[in-house]
Amino acid sequence: MRIVRPKFWPVVAAVLFMSGCLALRHHDDAPLDSSSRPINAADCYTLACPDLIEVIFFDRPEASRTARIAADGTVDLGKLGHFHVEGGTLAQAARHIADRLGLPPGRVRVQVVEYNSRQVLVYGEVNGEPRVVDYRGPETVVELLRRIGGIAPGAALNEISVLRASLSEGAPVEVLPVDLVAIIENGDERTNIRIQPLDEIYVGELARSRISKSIPPVLRPIYDGIVDLLPTRTSSKPANSN
């Protein structure tokens, strides 16, 4: 599958706007914080092989067990038997187990120990190495970026995209732009996309960061001093500005 990356802004524009972007990243509690959370991802996550789950029995703690979901969608709870949980949410799986055992609803809890069934690829200017991360339900882009540690100081907030493959054979990869500035500064959630399994999240790099990496260490203080003299962007306009 060929991945299409968004085009970078011109070098001059990226350098001029760099300070304003970094200010957003480090502003108190604002970085990567979504103001709208209508969906609890844990409530929506559906279990699948080979997730590892823990089944907790409140009235019989000795029967509690950690088990991996098998290829047939069941978990082996020892003497209690096998229970089909694949395709259900955590609450549904707990209710199913309780019903089978004749236990009162709410006396069984199911929680995920390892999310192994589905993944999301994150690469570009994120904290840590580009990597595959667990899919834990329909998180927003902002929520997932916060979960993995946020974006790197050299990230370009105007160059964040979700790449989504189509199920149709031969269809091109869909590129869904994420306007992180609008999300953080204006509370505009329209591009705070909810992640799906197998999505790829790409975070671009500021031109200043790319240039700085190519400059010999002995010359870097001179370059940084010149860039610091350039005017910076103060803030983006409100969403309803004309």
Q: What does this protein look like?
A:
With 242 residues, the chain is of the alpha+beta class. It folds into 2 domains: 11-40 and 118-228, Outer membrane lipoprotein wza domain like (Outer membrane lipoprotein wza fold like, Roll); 46-114, wza like fold, CATH 3.30.1950.10. 26% of the residues lie in helices and 22% in strands. The chain has 7 helices and 10 strands. It has a 5-stranded mixed beta sheet. Strand 3 and strand 4 (82-84) form a beta hairpin.
Looking at this structure, what is the CATH superfamily of the largest domain? Outer membrane lipoprotein wza domain like
**Which class best fits the helix and strand makeup?**
alpha+beta
Distance between the termini: 40 Å
Task: Please give the radius of gyration in angstroms.
Answer: 23 Å
CATH fold label of the largest domain = Outer membrane lipoprotein wza fold like
Counted by DSSP, the helix tally is: 7
Looking at the overall shape, the CATH architecture of the largest domain is Roll
Give the total of beta strands: 10
| N to C succession of SSEs | HHEEEEHEEEHEEHEHH
Unreliable sequence segments: 1-37, 233-242
| Widest β-sheet, arrangement of strands | 7-6-10-8-9
* Overall CATH class of the largest domain: Alpha Beta
What do the pLDDT scores average to?
79
Percentage of residues assigned to helices: 25-40%
* Major sheet attributes: 5 strands, mixed
List key phrases describing it:
2 domains; elongated; three-stranded antiparallel beta sheet; 26% helix; disordered C terminus; Outer membrane lipoprotein wza fold like; alpha+beta
